[in-house]
């Protein structure tokens, strides 16, 4: 069985991804896929929070056991069957930045497809260490001939202090 999740960032209308993941996939394997897909640094502490229908934290799954099991021992299917229809993927623990993964549906897996896989995307990947999510193009594109700073040369007769 394949589980489809929609990934969003709370308070942001631009970023969206849809992923398909086999039910037996561990949360650790799903984390590694998300890490690669989103371009996140591999040396950061991350965790999944399993949320109930009313967005209450039911479980926390870390790289090590935080009481609900470690990521490598909990499957996507187990989390959903526990009623955790939304997973919060906390990719920056110090600033509590996360991606919301909402369970959408299940479907049969196709033999010729590899999972997990990205199905749909919109917006740029979030910067793992930025304080906010920016996804916009510059209003006026810069050209090489644009002067960004005045010359570093000092006027004649002046010296650095």
Labels describing this entry:
Structural Genomics Hypothetical 15.5 Kd Protein In mrcA-pckA Intergenic Region, Chain A, seven-stranded antiparallel β-sheet, 2 helices, mainly beta
Biggest sheet: strand arrangement? 4-3-5-6-1-2-7
Integer average pLDDT: 86
Q: Could you name the ranges where pLDDT drops below 50 across 5 or more consecutive residues? A: none
Could you state the order of secondary-structure elements as H and E? EEHEEHEEE
Counted up, domains total 1
The fold-level CATH name is Structural Genomics Hypothetical 15.5 Kd Protein In mrcA-pckA Intergenic Region, Chain A
- Derived from helix and strand composition plus strand pairing, the structural class reads mainly beta
CATH homology superfamily: MM3350-like
- How many DSSP helices? 2
What kind of sheet is the major sheet? 7 strands, antiparallel
Gyration radius (Cα, Å) is 21 Å
Number of strands: 7
Reading off the top of the CATH hierarchy, the class is best stated as Alpha Beta
Strand content: 25-35%
Estimate the helix proportion, in percent. 10-25%
Shape: globular
CATH architectural type: Roll
The termini sit apart by 70 Å
């Amino acid at each position: 069985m394949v589980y489809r999740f929609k990934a969003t960032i709370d308070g942001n209308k631009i970023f969206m991804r849809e992923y398909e993941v086999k039910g037996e996939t561990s949360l650790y394997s799903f984390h590694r896929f998300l890490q690669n897909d989103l371009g996140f640094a591999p040396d950061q502490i991350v965790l999944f929070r399993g949320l109930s229908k009313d967005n209450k934290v039911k479980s926390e799954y870390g790289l090590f056991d935080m009481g609900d099991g470690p990521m490598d021992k909990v499957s996507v299917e187990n989390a959903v069957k526990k009623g955790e229809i939304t997973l919060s993927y906390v990719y920056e623990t110090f600033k509590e930045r996360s991606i919301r993964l909402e369970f959408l549906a299940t479907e049969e897996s196709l033999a010729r497809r590899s999972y997990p896989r990205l199905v749909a995307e919109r917006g740029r990947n979030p910067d793992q260490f930025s304080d906010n999510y920016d996804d916009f193009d510059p209003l006026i594109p810069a050209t090489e001939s644009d002067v960004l700073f005045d010359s570093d040369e000092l006027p004649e007769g002046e010296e650095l202090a």
